[in-house]
């Protein structure tokens, strides 16, 4: 048997259907049209949980992409309800952009403008526009991109600043989460700006979208990939001093295939060559972060904390796609074998066959467990996209 024989399209179709079914039954709030703020591993809903722009836009992206890839009335209706919820609840009509979080009743709780969340909004609006030929969603994506170019781009040093107050004035604490450094520029936000602008250019294809995507592609290679080669750089000062030598293996492998997607969307031969070289370098290094069971370990700190060997759900989803992408680029069986190992790990360690969806941590990481099955930082984005990507690629789509 070849490594790819363990990667069967029908299995990924079943995986995608299972994710969609769980979210339709448990993840979405029929009263508001949005996603519930938090759902425990036993599928119990925490009705009073805060709802974040990241979860809601990721859910919108998923059901919009699903409605386009595997059309069904359920997916279409869910995407439409989520679009209304996001635009009516999170969009700041006065200052532009999306606020960070709301209470369960829709009242704003944190009105800061985190650029990471704006990137996911562009990504989601583009998916909605593509699924429904929706001019309003398209215009929202374009308007938000223009706002970010005006407000968030650092005109002097380049790159996107991390966070702002509601009116886009500066803030001292720019952190995306409590575990992050308070850094003005981060790999994570720039990666999702790359992803957002890839979708925007695929949708719009005009001079503005090309300029945006070209600039972020070149910047990402220069600042986040090339300095270390095998691992992306994570945190920078405003003047591009590297603030952290940690290694994030999920981000490494996610970057590898998103760079290829961006270069392919640009259709630029030279950038395709650059993306291929970077992707294979990153994927090669990520092979060393696979453990004996086939799971991708989380990260390595440069200080005394050292290796964090937990297996979180999202690096597994990105590793599945990233290693298969490397196989498509290189023809090397070892990358397909790595993807097959990761897929086996996902099926045995993360997918909750009894109650649905994926677990935050691998079963083998017990007694540790994740904070919830769905919530502020966990939606149907990484795993749902991985299933769609594998289906698309096994149907014959190129890397």
UniProtKB/TrEMBL annotation:
GO annotation terms (biological process): carbohydrate metabolic process
Protein EC: 5.1.3.11
Alphabetized InterPro entries for the sequence: 6-hairpin_glycosidase_sf, 6hp_glycosidase-like_sf, AGE/CE, Cellobiose_2_epim
Short name of one Pfam family: GlcNAc_2-epim
Gene Ontology terms for molecular function: cellobiose epimerase activity
Keyword field: Isomerase
Catalytic activity as recorded in UniProt: D-cellobiose = beta-D-glucosyl-(1->4)-D-mannopyranose
Function in brief: Catalyzes the reversible epimerization of cellobiose to 4-O-beta-D-glucopyranosyl-D-mannose (Glc-Man).
Family in the record: Belongs to the N-acylglucosamine 2-epimerase family. Belongs to the cellobiose 2-epimerase family.
UniProt protein name: Cellobiose 2-epimerase
Organism from which the protein derives: Amphiplicatus metriothermophilus
